[in-house]
């Protein structure tokens, strides 16, 4: 078999050579269609490598001249700068490494809270854009057009310098329903746990699980027998009964409410949110929500009109139609662009450096100015963002895969 | 035109004529269900709160003196008085291009020219601008109308128009920088709106060819080039612009041989261009993927080489399909140039930061930022509006 093929090829070559009587020289390799791409790529690779080598060489010479040795050992040295708000304890005597950890946690904190809030507002505004109420439609459109077309950084500065910092001092705080607003932030009542909290939480979880089970059972019965079984009322009743039991057992409220108290300089107790955090959170949420809103609107509009008409013909009311028919179909189109908006929000949280909220870039910038290890810091910052991007994409992609239409 | 004969056997029953009264309209659009009644009142409440807050502030506290006194600073920064004619000349060139293009293409660009005229007229009416400025403004308006009329009748107008736009960046940079012919103006003197516009123009124009190359690379079959492009695009898209600016500030001086320095503004331009290129590439790739395979095959059958078919057949169609996306990217780059204020350049927002910390105007942050926001908004909105118009006229997504 193989020998046969070999003969075939030899024969072909002979024929070709005979046909091309003039020369039996094969095409030179620089005109060979198979070789050109390979050579091009080789040239490209060599060029990139040489360029990188040249730049790195320059960098090494430069670093030597400055007397800085490249390496990540400096992360173990004392940072000696202060970070005003952090999720874990931090003192100036702690290391650069810990400072960076604080920065990363602060980035994650503002991003996660931001993503949750921005999704809620974005979906509401996106649906409001399609409302049959003229005023609501115009109002949400106005909000989107104004916010989308001004830079986020300008908005951040407005929130921070022109709104939050111009509030009165702590002594003269503006108080609205237990919330205190002043130029160092917001103080609000918050919950503290008491002896009964554990009982409440465990019974609440049991109640929720029970409610779900009863809801499913009742719904199945309703589908089977065709008689109304009121699954929602049943499950609500289950939950309420569990909570009543919890109250009888623990004999107290689930949590105590801790009100902020004005001390000599500032508030103590309650939940206090700094102006910097408020500014970056407000800015990010209000800005990104407009993008989410437009995506949601586009997603809803992409669901074919026949679906709405069919639902209306069946006599399904508007809210149910939205929840059970339109949104499940729209969400397939919505997820991928929303993912990139979540990533944008996370990346934009780096603008917090401009309003003094100490997240990753801000801490990194301070550390690089103090230690002189600029390249290392940049590598760390970039890798953290890349890892966060990667994880978010993975999570959202798997969510997306579950949501996609299963096709044959 | 109702010419159909209406015979008694075939009578058409027309729907009852609906009278649109204000009351009827309100009932239909605002109060048609209990839920909408609640929504209407909530909206009215929001409008009331916002309007009340704004109006009280405007009447009692707002003092626009800070804008009036620093208007020149906001626009051109520290560009010196003797050299200001160069900025005006650059602007005049742009006005000329707008006028010509409005005459040649009409449509969207004509509306943009109307906007430009409106801006000039508004500035003409501002009482605090000097007579010198007003002469320049007037000549701009005259140029706009003259070039519009010329553009209407110009033979081979499209070629001239495209050529003019291609050269615009070079001409503008020539006026501002001098290229050795005119005395040079230090780049650190380029501030304010001028810097914002230059930065975004350079980033958008520079990133376009790089983006196309990256997109072609990413869709090509050559593995090394393909993976290089993928790595570059995904890397850039994964990191925030501000870290790109920081890296450029630190790495460019480090990577260059000793004694070789690059001005801050150039570093930022490189950073912004490299950053936007990755996003441009993704937009262009979307266009490339929307081209049916038959186009490649048809190009091959008529004997075009792969380079010819890419640049003559595929790219023109692909780019046409993604014009709105590219404009969208340009808007976001324009807004993102404000980030240079963090790395020490004094663009429009940077000027705002300097002005508000001027002791003479302490406590007028809101006025300063609102003015800056308005300037950004007008330009960005004009861009997004024209992009929407383009989308309609091109019929993108409808074929």
UniProtKB/TrEMBL annotation, chain A:
GO MF entries: transmembrane transporter activity
A cellular-component GO term for this protein: ATP-binding cassette (ABC) transporter complex
Transmembrane segments: 38-56, 110-131, 152-170, 198-217, 229-257, 277-300, 321-339, 377-399
Cross-referenced InterPro entries: AA_ABC_transptr_permease_3TM, ArtM/GltK/GlnP/TcyL/YhdX-like, MetI-like, MetI-like_sf
Domain ABC transmembrane type-1: 104-396
GO terms of biological process kind: amino acid transport
Entry keyword Nucleotidyltransferase: no
Entries under Gene3D superfamilies matching the protein: MetI-like
Pfam families cross-referenced by the UniProt entry: BPD_transp_1 (PF00528)
Keyword presence, NADP: no
Subcellular location: Cell membrane
Keywords: Amino-acid transport, Cell membrane, Membrane, Transmembrane, Transmembrane helix, Transport
Major site of localization recorded for this protein: membrane
Membrane topology: Multi-pass membrane protein
Similarity field: Belongs to the binding-protein-dependent transport system permease family. HisMQ subfamily.
Protein name, per record: Amino acid ABC transporter membrane protein 1 (PAAT family)
Source organism of the structure: Paraliobacillus ryukyuensis
Lineage summary: Bacteria, Bacillati, Bacillota, Bacilli, Bacillales
From TrEMBL, chain B:
Bilayer-crossing regions: 33-51, 84-105, 112-129, 135-152, 159-181, 193-216, 228-256, 262-281, 339-356, 368-386
Keyword Phosphoprotein applies: no
GO cellular component: ATP-binding cassette (ABC) transporter complex
Compartments where located: Cell membrane
Keyword Ribosomal protein: no
GO biological process: amino acid transport
Main location: membrane
UniProtKB keywords: Cell membrane, Membrane, Transmembrane, Transmembrane helix, Transport
Bilayer topology term: Multi-pass membrane protein
Record-level Gene Ontology MF annotations: transmembrane transporter activity
PROSITE patterns: ABC_TM1
Positions of the ABC transmembrane type-1 domain: 193-387
Annotated CDD domains: TM_PBP2 (cd06261)
Family statement: Belongs to the binding-protein-dependent transport system permease family.
Protein name as catalogued: General L-amino acid transport system permease protein
Naturally occurring in which organism (per UniProt): Paraliobacillus ryukyuensis
